[in-house]
Amino acid sequence: MSLEHLMRTGRWTTAPVSADLVSDTLRVTAAESSDAWRTTSYGFVHDSEHALIAPFAVGSAIEVSFILDFTQQFDQAGLFLRSSDREWMKAGIEISDGLPQLGAVVTHGVSDWSVAPVADWVGRAVTVRASRTGDAITVRARVDDDNFRLVRLAYFAPDASIDGGLFCCAPTRAGLTVTFSDFRQTAADESLH
């Protein structure tokens, strides 16, 4: 599945300000205050992310690629998996404390968050991959053509109906535009390591 196919067959969880497919890239502009979070530490629920998603079956994987050229606090982009408003995951890059952070938020009723700084990824092509096998979602990421590194292993019920795709959010500002350069659906990874 390509970006063009995802645009034709997918659905937005929340429509972005704009989404333009130009020369094999998808440029998505996020609305100010868009975000995905549920309760933990902050006490609020935000369910206004701009995720373009399609069915994500057990035994498959999705990859989302984008250019890391955003710099404002909490700007974020990557991949999004959604079973319901209380069961979802986002993984990718989020700007926090002045640095791009590679991480994931897993939500089973309430959200958690894990991050690691990747300052040397700025200006480069980031690819985030989610692989679904049994009761596990394995998230890996890389920059350019480097090897994938493990980001997260998370539980999702094996019989859960999950949609997956790309996303972006701009919790603190207007004007964030993310350039997505690729979307692929492939077979799931055969092993964790």
Automatic annotation (TrEMBL):
<dbReference type="InterPro" id="IPR009784">
    <property type="entry name" value="DUF1349"/>
</dbReference>
<protein>
    <recommendedName>
        <fullName>DUF1349 domain-containing protein</fullName>
    </recommendedName>
</protein>
<dbReference type="InterPro" id="IPR013320">
    <property type="entry name" value="ConA-like_dom_sf"/>
</dbReference>
<dbReference type="Pfam" id="PF07081">
    <property type="entry name" value="DUF1349"/>
</dbReference>
